[in-house]
Amino acid sequence: MNELSTAGLLEEFKARFPRAGKVQAVRAPGRVNLLGEHTDYNQGFVFPMAIDAGIQIAGELNGTGRVNLYSLNYAAKESFLLEEITPSKSNTWVNYIKGVVWQFQKLGLQPQGADLVIQGNVPQGAGLSSSAALEVAAALLLDALHGWGLGAVDLVKLAQKAENEFVGVACGIMDQFASMLGQKDHALFLDCRSLEYEAVPLPLEKQGYAVAVVNSGVRRGLAGSEYNTRRQQCEEAVQRLQNELPGVESLRDVSLVDLSLVNQLPDPLARRARHVVMENARVQQGVTALKAGELEEFGRLLTASHKSLRDDYEVSCAELDLLVELALEVPGVLGSRMTGAGFGGCTIALVPQTSLPAFEKTVSEEYQRRTGIQPEIFVFRPAPGARIITEADPQS
Ligand code: GLA
Prior knowledge:
Number of helices: 11
Bound molecules: alpha-D-galactopyranose
Order of helices and strands: HEEEEHEHHHEEEHHHHHEEHEE
Low-confidence stretches: none
CATH architecture of the largest domain: 2-Layer Sandwich
Number of domains: 2
Helix content: 25-40%
Largest sheet: 8 strands, mixed
Radius of gyration: 21 Å
Structural class: alpha+beta
Number of strands: 12
CATH class of the largest domain: Alpha Beta
Mean pLDDT: 95
Shape: globular
């Protein structure tokens, strides 16, 4: 579904909830992670960009004890009582909103009933963070409707907790952070421990390149359980490493010089920890390379990241590996890797603008021939993070 204009969204809202109150609307983008995978929950570094596909919500307080929702994408209605927030098994999209409302309650705030209309164009189950976009949009809108004035980072943390504690995925902070704080034409170099970040310009187009995002069409089925297992393995690796390295609180604290100790851990802990330690180094090297205009080096790091996710962290799958292999066969492509949690979802590739048609043709045809799946290929622009939108919005 294409994204509606703000005016279109507000019209849809009024058609479903015809009252004269003050309707507000927000938009939060999805994200694609350029480098730094499975490092965020190890307090390490990530390098995502917000994309120009997002989720928007129009809403109004309704003076009742109930939240009413309408999803334009699913043409589906839902409703829940504020005093009885429990996860829904059938309509799982509602849980992201419920989780956010519940977190506001846990903070001691008193969310009131509201009517909300939701619409979006972030491909779902593709590892482009449609869930984080929904959580962030809901958090920002509810904050605005109630006039609480929580800061962006507090809303990011609240949205992440909604996913951790209500939806039940132990995700890190990257997706919600990128969705809230992304900047147009930049990627965010984020330190997931201090939450300090730097917006790094991405003048890829000027350099004649694009980041192509290829959706494998494989939904991230295993992601939930395997994701949580990877987290536990990282924690176990830290506990064992503390015998030799007492100052280490997370894998973020393990540096390349300690790799020999990491390699002595039992399998698979050695490989899991090695991925995280080296991936953190790759993010820092990648940001330096980009700033210096060294795209070839950046591309090399992307491909190295993929190999490490495939062999050491074991979160890739045959389809993602095939997409990377096909991408690297296209002349001029500087690097490619899976992006996001893994086990399906998308790959990215650094492709010369002039080779984009050849890239799309070769990758689609060959992938379809070998897997029977037609991949989707996107070229997203680095987009601004979540914000209140009005009819006068230039982007609406
Ligand atoms: C998912 C999680 C993120 C991050 C990535 C892997 O997208 O939501 O927090 O851990 O996987 O890098």
